[in-house]
Write a structure and sequence with these properties.
Blueprint lengths: L12 H27 L4 H27 L6
Helix pairs in contact: 1-2
Length: 76
């Protein structure tokens, strides 16, 4: 008996796109925040903008995780 259920993914193209978008938003947002941290010494306005946009992307990814958790395979 496995500790975690095996997840082979979905065949629904809309759900696959949503799952990919979630991780692009989360990792892209986190990367933006890290880059903004290093840019802060040279260009404070750009760094602040990147922090805000990165945070917005991470939050959007989190919201999409919640939405995806509520969707089922049969929903289109």
């Amino acid at each position: 008996m496995a500790f975690f259920k095996k997840y082979n993914g979905t065949t629904n193209t809309k759900l696959v796109r949503m799952e990919r978008l979630v991780w692009v938003l989360i990792y892209g947002g986190l990367l933006s925040i890290v880059i903004a941290h290093f840019l802060g010494e040279t260009d404070e306005i750009l760094a602040h903008t990147m922090r805000i946009l990165g945070l917005a992307a991470v939050v959007a990814g989190g919201v999409l995780i919640y939405v995806r958790a509520r969707l089922r395979e049969g929903n289109d």
